Amino acid sequence: MSDNETIIVQQLQSDKDKNAAFKSLISLYKERLYWHIRHIVKSHDDADDVLQNTFIKVFKNINNFKGDSKLYSWLYRIATNEALTLLKRNAKLKDINNQDIQDLTINNLQSDVYFEGDAIQLKLQKAIATLPEKQQLVFNMKYFQDLKYSQLSEILDTSEGALKASYHLASKKIEAYLKAN
To answer: 115: helix, coil or strand?
Structure first.
């Protein structure tokens, strides 16, 4: 952990400084986490809900954070799990599988007033939606957020070699999809 992260964690874990430190934490990570979540759930409203749930979970569980990983890795892991939980819950509510919920989400993306992408970006999102869940996560985090494999390894608790393979496979599948469509 960096010195800044150590100080923030200490403040978050102290009763006296917790609220002020939490505001700092939100301002530091809100935008990055929002876009990380948004790439998973696609919808602005769902991303906002998941982001709020992520920060609530962080606030409630900060005393369980031991500093074994970087703070942002812990935040990303919580955000990722919350986003995947939302997708699974939505699929269950609609009584459809995860791939169908991805397709539905992509279709809704076209009418999302917060989606600022063009036809090419929409096509890329459709291609990403065809990937298995793990490959989607790896591709989104590497391609859109430019995270290093060492960071991905901490967040997803997977070896760097496996992540490189997942990213390579995802890239090839996306390339094939884009050529075919």
So the answer is: coil
